[in-house]
Amino acid sequence: MPELRTRRRLDQPRLGRRRLDVDPEEFARLSERAARFLGTGRYLAIQTVLVVVWIALNLFAVSLRWDPYPFILLNLAFSTQAAYAAPLILLAQNRQDDRDRISLDEDRRRAERTKADTEYLARELAALRLAVGEVATRDYLRGELEKLAERIGAERADGSGRAADRVERGAGRGRGVNRPAGD
């Protein structure tokens, strides 16, 4: 079977077709800029001036009439503008919705993390309160020391001799810090 040239073979795609390579992200950014401009007062002022000049020239400048009274060409220009403006504005709104959705998802995740951190800190704080409740506080120790001081003062007042005897007897037994108990 004779070999067919590559251009005539139906089982292989043609090479050499050139396609318009448009970056969708770049096109979307461009459409957002256009949509932002279409929504400004500057655009409305420019369009109003152009329409007034268009109508004035077509009504009063008889030699320049390119669009007589029903202004069909002006109507066509407005229709074309609307046909392009509406999709551009919708594309810009869709991109803004996507950005808002991503932002809301990030906010939701951040709120969940904050809530989890807050709950963790609340549990830790409760555990610390329980632990501090079991620890002797300064006020508790101060109260106990005052009770002991009062008891010692009362014993001294009751029988100052008995307390002194006990102290002397304890020291006289030879049970000091450095001496063994058997001496």
UniProtKB/TrEMBL annotation:
<feature type="transmembrane region" description="Helical">
    <location>
        <begin position="72"/>
        <end position="92"/>
    </location>
</feature>
<keyword id="KW-1133">Transmembrane helix</keyword>
<dbReference type="InterPro" id="IPR010406">
    <property type="entry name" value="DUF1003"/>
</dbReference>
<keyword id="KW-0812">Transmembrane</keyword>
<keyword id="KW-0472">Membrane</keyword>
<feature type="transmembrane region" description="Helical">
    <location>
        <begin position="43"/>
        <end position="66"/>
    </location>
</feature>
<feature type="compositionally biased region" description="Basic and acidic residues">
    <location>
        <begin position="156"/>
        <end position="171"/>
    </location>
</feature>
<feature type="region of interest" description="Disordered">
    <location>
        <begin position="156"/>
        <end position="183"/>
    </location>
</feature>
<protein>
    <submittedName>
        <fullName>Membrane protein</fullName>
    </submittedName>
</protein>
<dbReference type="Pfam" id="PF06210">
    <property type="entry name" value="DUF1003"/>
</dbReference>
